[in-house]
Amino acid sequence: MRSTTSAWTYGIETIYQTLALADNVDAAANMFLGREITTSLGSLNDAAMESATREVIGRLNPNFKNFKVPVKSLSGGQRQSVAIARAVHFNARILIMDEPTAALGPAETAQVRDLVTQLKAQGIGIFLISHDIHDVFDLADRISVMLHGKLVGTVDKDKVTKDEVLAMIIIGKRPEQVSETEMAELIT
Question: Are residues 83 and 53 in the same domain?
């Protein structure tokens, strides 16, 4: 894949850790950034973009009310809602989420977790990149661990413990390769 446009063609959307939002414009302008709706005369169709934004965000986060303010004034969870809505609106089949709960408070983290669960239920494939073991265990079906840029392994979340995943992260070995001594040293 050579460009963002080619990723969009395949239904792949990315939500970056920084969210890649334009702080000075509202939710609708951010949702359609680079893919604006225009009228037959070529001007921006603000009403159509705002209507679509209200529909998608309303479905994802019914408590979201700040549609007309610059996104810089939104909470972290609300900003994440805008970024997720952008991906959902453009029919993402695969969503790559880089540290979606980083720097969020407990309530905002819960809100983002609910959104991820909702997206999974809709059949959207999600690649969740996270250093938060709780996010990983609460949201993932399979866990892949990388160490120094190399894949340690991929495991089914329901077949491993958090300690075994931590061993993959720290020791760099798959659970079946970790000795009892190494595991004991890790958890003490």
Answer: yes
Q: What is the pLDDT of residues 104-162, one digit of tens each?
A: 788 888 888 888 898 899 899 999 999 889 889 999 999 999 999 999 999 999 999 99
Instruction: Label the pairing between strands 142-147 and 150-156.
Output: antiparallel
The total number of residues shown for the chain amounts to 188
Task: Map residue 22 onto helix, strand or coil.
Answer: coil
Same-domain check for residues 145 and 59 = no
The CA distances from residue 136 to 19, 128, 131, 158, in Å, are: 19, 8, 8, 12
Q: Outline where DSSP puts E strands in the chain.
A: 12-15, 94-98, 125-129, 142-147, 150-156
Phi-psi map region of 101: left, alpha, beta (phi>0 left; psi -120 to 50 alpha): alpha
Task: Judge if 56 and 108 occupy the same domain.
Answer: yes
pLDDT digits (tens, 9 = 90+) for 9-20: 888 988 888 888
162 close to 137: Cβ distance less than 8 angstroms: yes
φ, ψ of residue 15 in degrees (nearest 5): -115, 110
| pTM for this prediction | 0.82
Do 21 and 79 form a contact (C-beta atoms < 8 A)? Answer: yes
Q: H or E element: which one contains 99?
A: none
Which stretches of 63-177 are assigned E, i.e. beta strand? 94-98, 125-129, 142-147, 150-156
